[in-house]
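Attaching the record inline, Q. Sequence:
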Amino acid sequence: MTDRNSNDAQHQKLADDPRAIRHRLKSLSKDLWWSWNEIARRPFAMLDPELWETVRHSPFRLLQHLDANIYNSRLAEPSFREVAAHAISEHVDYHSCRTWYQANSNVDDPPLRIAYFCSEYAIHESLPQYAGGLGVLAGDHLKSASDLGIPLVGVGLLYQHGYYKQEFRGDGTTRVIYPACDFESIPLEDTGVRLDCPIGDRSVRVRVWSMKMGRVPLYLLDANLPGNRVEDRALTASLYQGDDDLRLQRQVLLGVGGFRALRLLEEVPTVIHLNEGHAAFAAVERVAELVRSGQSTEEAISQVRGSTVFTTHTPVPAGNQRYDADKMQAMLAPILEPAGLPGDFAVNLGRANPDDHEERPCMTILALNLAERVNGVSELHGSVSRDMWKEVYGTQDASRVPITHVTNGVHTGTWLAPVAERFWRDHIDYAGEPQPEDPCWARATSVDPAAFWELRHTLRRRMISFVRRRLAIQSRRRGENPDRVVEARRALSDTALTIGFARRFATYKRATLVLQDPDRLARILGNESRPVQIIFAGKAHPADEGGQAVAQAIHEQCRDPRFQGKIVLLENYDIEVGRRLTAGCDLWLNTPRRPFEASGTSGMKPGLHGGINCSISDGWWVEAEDGTNGWTIGDETTASDEKTQDDRDANLLYDLLEHEIIPGFWDRDADGIPQAWVERGLRSVATIPTWFNTDRMVAQYLEWGYRPASVASKA
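Structure, as predicted:
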């Protein structure tokens, strides 16, 4: 009782002190903990709601642009100070409480420090340093590591232009824009560390920044320095832009420069986690360092392999980058030569057959050869990876390939809409505590159907309002006449069955599968007594003409008079769009060409809100679907050619829509509630969030990978 009284007294003292509130809010704005805690964002939104929207919900940026008179006025209000004090107290408690990791560790456990390398991190929409799913996973991984208290640091690059801004012209073609990021408006801290990263015949000067993500620091390397050559500054100009030579050099900077930066920061890792092959050169640098310290090459490789975790993400060949052998050898010469390692050391480790000098070295194979613990990102992807990389392991028996799986998840605090969070707190005692498996979700099936159905209406209405605003902005930007702007504001219905498709526009993801038969789709969407609508969003790689053609095809269908106002396409897909759509859509559509969807985490997010998946049997959905929590399109069989497969899958999807999904949504009882739909929606909640979350995922990495690898690092 004394402790509680003391805490209450401290809280009240803070709430009564405007100067302390001002100081502590500035400190809070620099900790990206606010990006996954609504209570932390609330006082900043209160300061100036219009400016809050303008700065893309960034507390740090808001304080930079906030009018001093407005700030002083808010600080004079006890109600504002109370909300601010609550946020500050939660932040203090977060950093002072005993963590899950501390509670699940022994004093005799070996020291653990994980360095997590990734080329992109999706943390918040105001930080455009990500392209898609790889970055979203990396950002969620760091957030869960922070919540659980796992000793991990992130390593990446800081891009001057981030990823591109996507706009659609009037004909649906993509306009690619690279706006400059203002680093002054990002909560970055200059670590003071500078290093010269050797890349081929030159050294590139690099500055190391840090961002605070709760308990986890994220270190980002920046080569865009005044003293560097133009081509060197381009290394961190923009994410994934450039030819093979530039990408190869950028990956040297990430792996070699990133690992050397950790040394200078005195963040000595016991384990390195390579999140995709982009970072494989970190393991090469680590081998070279050990050899320089006196170990034999065999000892160094053994130690590095034993203490390295590698996550491979794609079964698509284009996603496993290969480079010219001579160029790779030249780029790594200043790393390998001082250690006395042969010039073709990394080149040969990057080949499935080191004796085949015609084979271009592959970053994925390099990582496979330098990591003992390798995983795919779903059970199916693990199986596909074992078959895909048999030759690397010298076997034709996939069961002997030592690749396992750790199925991806999503960070619940980031993706759970605040209104849904409050609902689950009231109805299933959701507490939001960091833990690998939260049993509260299983109680969802007992929730009152009427209350749940009202939640679904609320989420859908809010999403439709957001989509209409975005469509109106798109219409104005294209200079369309006022009538078209008005049409955009009236697009869609806030009561219709709403289907969502939002992800990277890669051709294998088949975004246009549902558009395969426009006449049949027109009959489905044209039933005024049972309205249905579709919302699309997605980005293609700026060099992916096929992916951009997918977006153009969707744009053309949106202009078809039969679909106007019923099919819409949002441009510049980002975290905010993803968060809104996954919360509000009733049905989440996933139609990849099996087995190319390694995981596909977007479909895990609707389950937090009672949305339902309709998916090809691929990626994570193979593990999640149980016949009662969503719909599966077809089965696991594949046709002999892509057209036959596409036609078959499209027809099966239309059949599901016509005979099960639409009737399930629109068949209502006397109280206007679709009981069958509600039952399936609550089953989605009860079965998906418990397992498909990054707290569980990171805890799995800890037990399967990090702890054993840390022991190996001392061997």
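The chain has a mean pLDDT of 95. The CA atoms of residues 443 and 705 lie 32 Å apart.

More tomorrow.
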